[in-house]
Specification:
This protein is about 25% helix and about 40% strand. With about 120 residues, the chain is an alpha/beta fold. It has a domain of about 80 residues: OB fold (Dihydrolipoamide Acetyltransferase, E2P) (Beta Barrel). The protein has a five-stranded mixed beta barrel with strand order 2-3-4-6-5. β1, α2 and β2 form a beta-alpha-beta unit. The longest helix is centred in the N-terminal third of the chain and has 25 residues. The radius of gyration is 22 Å and the shape is elongated. The N and C termini lie far apart (about 80 Å).
């Protein structure tokens, strides 16, 4: 009877450890441009959009630059079309990996300024 409890406990502990490791591996940390250049893994980099970027029809790549809060500039290449609201964006979050002098984004999250403005003083 006691061996059933031990086996059950081992299964529960094993599942809990597996779940924790799987969850931790799925997290993608936010890092600075400098950190992204030195890490050999998928990360998120947030930066101010610089310019409007350009789309290369031949390679189906959208290329643009961002600047992080430290002032470091990052060249980003995204395999896909330019997001529709990119030109209105104040900041962009790029999810991807830095390779060969360029950040290869597999996902873009566009941060647009708020549409809602505080009420002005109507006097």
């Amino acid at each position: 009877m006691r061996s059933k409890y031990i086996i059950g406990a081992v299964i529960i502990i094993g599942f809990t450890v597996w779940a924790a490791i799987s969850f931790n591996a799925s997290l993608t940390p936010y890092v600075s441009v400098d950190e992204a250049k030195h890490l050999n893994k998928t990360v998120q980099v947030k930066g101010e959009r610089l310019g409007h970027g350009n789309f290369d029809v031949n390679t189906n790549q959208f290329k643009f630059k961002i600047r992080d809060e430290n002032g470091d500039v990052l060249q980003v290449v995204y395999d896909g079309a330019k997001p529709g609201n990119f030109d209105q964006a104040s900041h962009v979050v790029c999810v991807g990996k830095y390779e060969n002098g360029v950040f290869h984004a597999k996902e873009l999250l566009v941060k647009c300024p708020s549409k809602y403005q505080p009420e002005g003083n109507n006097s």
